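RECORD TYPE: protein structure
NAME: DUF4383 domain-containing protein
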Amino acid sequence: MTLTMRRTLLWLTAVVGLYVGLWSAGAPKSFYDSFPGLGFIWISIDGPYNEHLVRDVGALYLGLAAATALAALQRSEVAAVAASRTIGLAWVVFSVPHLAYHALHLDGLGALDVVAQMISLGSTVVLGGLLMLGPEPARTVRDVGAPATTDP
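PREDICTED:
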């Protein structure tokens, strides 16, 4: 994967985090009542409103988005690859159980909602997985202080 492609995936993933994070942390009741928007409603059908929980989810997404953006801004290819792999892992660790929960709790959703929700939630699993892929870039003189890997 090229560095440009890796950075594009990082920025795309950061935008997902910002969309969910800013809305749920900044306007939790609106998020609960209206997420994801465009006439779909996925949160309020899953139980009573809990401002603390919705704001915490927003903060989690904002934290992931901030770390993802920082990874995208890494100047050296070695640092960008290492950071994107770590960020990818964080997104997968969060997204797999999140997707699994929603996949097991589809009651009350119409067919279009089910498909859209699974695609939406699956996208962060895919993006995170893609960020973990790719060979290590060649080390440069600038990266001499970085830990070296050796074959036994």
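COMMENT: The longest strand covers residues 36-37.
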